[in-house]
Design brief:
about 140 residues; mainly alpha; 5 helices
Length: about 140
């Protein structure tokens, strides 16, 4: 390839051979890192689910405030769901997974004991908007 042809390909927006090789290897390294991170997050979610199942559910049978225990169990389950969805987001890079992570975060905020009526109203509006976006505006969904 002559210098004029190489110059015209660079001007046309095509990448050079060195850029192509670097993009390929750096892209693979980033994908491998994200995959390992996702597997670690999914493993932590499994451990968290087991810990919640073994540690929290027996407290429902103890003579304590069952409402607070149930609230804590639901918060822990939603936290595990957030971790699992984040892992899936890193693995598959789906827009629906990103929206599902946000839905779980908002749902976890809603069951907090310190939530006010205004916070609850805003959370409900956000959930409705996210669900509408998820089912009606994401590509690949039946409308």
């Amino acid at each position: 390839m002559s210098k004029e042809e190489e110059k015209s390909t660079v001007e046309a927006g095509e990448e050079t051979m060195i850029e192509g090789v670097l993009n390929h290897y750096v892209g693979n390294a980033i994908h491998l890192f994200l995959s390992l991170l996702a597997v670690m997050i999914l493993g932590a979610a499994v451990i968290g689910a087991y810990d919640t199942l073994v540690g929290e559910f027996p407290k429902l049978l103890a003579p304590v405030d069952e409402y607070k225990v149930l609230q804590q169990i639901i918060q822990n389950i939603l936290l595990v769901a957030i971790a699992a969805e984040l892992g899936l987001l890193l693995l598959f890079h789906r827009t629906s997974a990103a929206i599902e992570v946000i839905i779980f975060v908002v749902a976890r905020k809603m069951i907090s004991p310190e939530v006010t009526a205004l916070d609850l109203l805003i959370c409900v509006a956000a959930l409705v908007a996210l669900i509408v976006v998820r089912f009606y505006y994401l590509p690949g969904r039946v409308k």
